[in-house]
Amino acid sequence: MMMVSDDCLVECNIDDSDDDDGEQVNTPPPPPEFASKASTPAPKPPTPPVAPPTPESTSPVSRDPNNINQHLKVEVSDVLAEPSTPHSIDQVWIYSVTGFESTRIWTYRCLSLLFAVPFAFLCGVFIAVLACIHVWVLVPCLQLSYTFLPCLRSLCLCSLNVFVSPFCSSLALCCSQIAVSLSNKDWSQAKDKDAV
Questions:
Q1: In the 8-state DSSP scheme, what is residue 136?
Q2: How many CB atoms are located within 10 Å of the residue 189 CB?
Q3: pLDDT: is 94 or 53 the higher one?
Q4: Distance of alpha carbon 46 from the chain centroid
Q5: Could you tell me which residues come within 8 angstroms of residue 43 by beta carbon, excluding any fewer than 6 positions away?
Q6: CA–CA separation, 92 vs 83, rounded Å?
Q7: Buried (b) or exposed (e) across 171-182, using 16+ Cβ within 10 A?
Q8: Are 99 and 80 in contact (CB under 8 A)?
Q9: What is the dihedral angle through the alpha carbons of 49, 50, 52, 58, rounded to the nearest 10 degrees?
Q10: 34, 77, 163, 177: which could join 30 in a potential S-S bond, CB 3.0 to 4.6 Å?
Q11: Helix, strand, or coil here: 108?
C-alpha cells in the first residue's frame, strides 16, 4: 500500500456562511504529479443573478376532476337556437346570449353563496358521523363478534349436548318400539264403515 506524502495534499478553506459577496476563492493548483495532462478551460466569468420569473396565468384548477357533473355543462346553443331563415336582429341575438350567460352565471353564484357553505358543512358533518360510527361502533362490534362467535358456538353445542340431545335420544328410544302394521282386513273394515 502506498502512502501519500504531506506535500501532495492541498489545503482548501471551506466557508459555509450564507453571505455571498461574489468573491471567488482562489485555490492553488494541484501538485504536478496529480495534474491532468489536458489543458483546463479558462474559468467562466460569474453570471449576473437572474430575476425571478414573473408568475404567468395558470390554468384554473379543475373543480370536477372526476366529471361527476358532466350533465350540467349547458351551453347557450343547448337551450336557445334560431333556424337559419327566420332569425332576429343580430343585436337581439347577442343580447339574448349575453343575458342568458350572465343570468345563469350570477344566479348560480348567488345560490352557491347562500347554499354551498351550509350544505358543505352538513355533508362534512354527515361524513364525519359515518366515519365515527364505522370506526368506533361497526368495526369493533364485528371484531368482537369474530372473537366471541367461536366461544358462543361451543357454548350452544355444549348446552344442546347436555339438555336437548338426551331428551331427543330418550324420546327416540321410546318411540322405536311402536310398530304400525296394516292388513287388508283392517283396511276393508275401515272402508265398510265409511260406506255406511
A1: I
A2: 11
A3: 94
A4: 50
A5: 24
A6: 15
A7: eeeeeeeeeeee
A8: no
A9: -160
A10: 34
A11: helix
Provide long-range contacts, Cβ within 8 A and 24+ apart, for 31-40.
Answer: 31/7, 33/8, 34/8
Tell me, yes or no, if the pTM score tops 0.70. no
DSSP string, 55-74: PPPPPPPPS-TT-TTGGG--
Non-local (6+) Cβ contacts of 27 within 8 A are 10, 12
Residue 137 C-beta-side C-alpha neighbours within 13 Å: 6
| Band of pLDDT at residue 32, cut at 50, 70 and 90 | low
- 29 near 8, Cβ under 8 Å? no
Cα–Cα distance for residue pair 41/47, rounded to 1 Å:
17
Question: Phi and psi for 87 in degrees, rounded to 5?
Answer: -130, 160
pLDDT mean over 69-79: 81
Q: Are 88 and 82 in contact (CB under 8 A)?
A: yes
In the chain, the amino acid numbered 145 is S
C-alpha atoms less than 13 angstroms from C-alpha of 63 in its C-beta half-sphere: 2
Is pLDDT larger for residue 55 or for residue 69? 69
What is residue 33's three-state secondary structure? coil
Burial class (CB in 10 A: 0-12, 13-18, 19+), 137: exposed
Burial annotation 24-46 (CB, 10 A radius, 16+ → b, else e): eeeeeeeeeeeeeeeeeeeeeee
Cβ-Cβ contacts under 8 Å for 82 (sequence gap 6 or more): 88, 93
